[in-house]
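Consider the following assembly input.
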Amino acid sequence: MFPTPESRLRALNSRPPDPAGEWVLYWMTMQRRPGFNFALEHAAQSAVRLGRPLLILEALRLGYARATERSHAFILQGMAANARDLAGRPVFYFPYLELEPDQGRGLLAALAARACLVVADDHPGFFLPQMLAAAAGQVPVQMQAVDGCGLLPLDATGQAYPSAYAFRRFLQKELPGHLAAWPAADPLAGLDLPRLAGLPAEIAQRWPAAPAPALAAAPEFLASLPLDHSVPPAPLTGGWEAGRERLARFLAERLPRYLERNHPDAEAASGLSPWLHFGHLSPHEVFAALARQEAWGPPRLGAKAAGKREGWWGMSPPAEAFLDQLVTWRELGFNAARHLPAYDQYDSLPAWARQGLAAAAGDPRPHLYRLEQFRAAATHDQLWNAAQRQLNREGVMHNYLRMLWGKKILEWTASPREALAVMLELNDRLALDGRDPNSICGIFWVLGRYDRPFGRHPMIGPLRPMTSASARRKLRLKQYLARWEA
DNA sequence: ATCGGCTCGCGCAA
DNA sequence: TGCGCGAAGCCGAT
């Protein structure tokens, strides 16, 4: 066991630990898995040091924005997987689920009141920063956030990078120094910790652990919760076990043809983002599995890549292309969420994009749709509709089509601000990776972030255009269209 | 089938 | 100060 890297550790308050506390509390919110988890590892080591039981709280509330049966089912499946894994471990796992809005209010404070210290997941997106700040005020003992978001610690830079090229160049210089501090595959292995027999009665009565049908994400149970029932569970299973299976299948079957992933019919994309989003999979675990398959070690790192995509890691071309997604682009999204003020607001776009879009605001728009029409996949464009239907039913959308999808929404709404609102609503409500810094990053790319101008065009001004006609011409998507035509 | 132009900002070389 | 270059584009000329 290594000490938690300082660069991943953030003090949320300035209170000391209480050595007389009854347990060490790990509040699992964004890294919902037992392995490759810096925060869990840090909490476990703290528990060993203090000789106290480790209590893991994994909670799911009802009141967050756009809570659907789909997101709830995926998270609950993840909690069931964690319950299975942690049942035989030297920890007390407490899965909590609200049955009515705000039922969970006060739970963290109640558990923290008896804790030696509290460890939380650090995360720059959604409402996490505000939630962590608010929680820190209610915690009477030391509270720390641990950052397991990416291979690069969030605070390894204070800068919001303006382009993937600049960020990649930075990573090529700085990332090797962070690869030595790796999270343990199993941070609980061989730990000798006192066991907590149960929670105090007054806590257990007011906040009972999630019932079995909940963790099974049973349809009748989901139907009984006050959620958005218009978005049914996706045909994907949440949890670290399912995520790990998906990863193994991707590496074995799809990675060899990863360079063809833009063709929907090639079915070569990784499809890992739902599990990464909920922390069921760790980017460290993904990287480690890839490195093993490629028989890779740090000595193979390229000497001088200077922002180039190839020849950075010294892996096969498909593996390098995948790492550009997993590391450069994924962590660029986290970089923006952490360091770009108002990263999810329109005004955070680069000036050339905002000005160019403003200049094109008065252009005639031959097709205009409202949110409901987009959601119903009821536009004039069969390819666009097909992509929307995939999102509606599977909770994911093919990557290349996701860019086209956004570019068309920009042309088919009255203003770029409305386009942003429509994209965020559809993405965050329907996609399993909605709200992720990474999917938000894709939406803002549609609006010009990290991109460059491409002349002047009606409605979109200097933004890079994409057209369905061109996509049909250059991509293999016959089967895709047939599958999602209605 | 391939190529340049469209257009902006940045880092780096000179 | 100039130059090269950038998530995956698109169109029209050759």
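The mean pLDDT of chain A is 95. Ask yourself how this observation constrains the way the partners meet.
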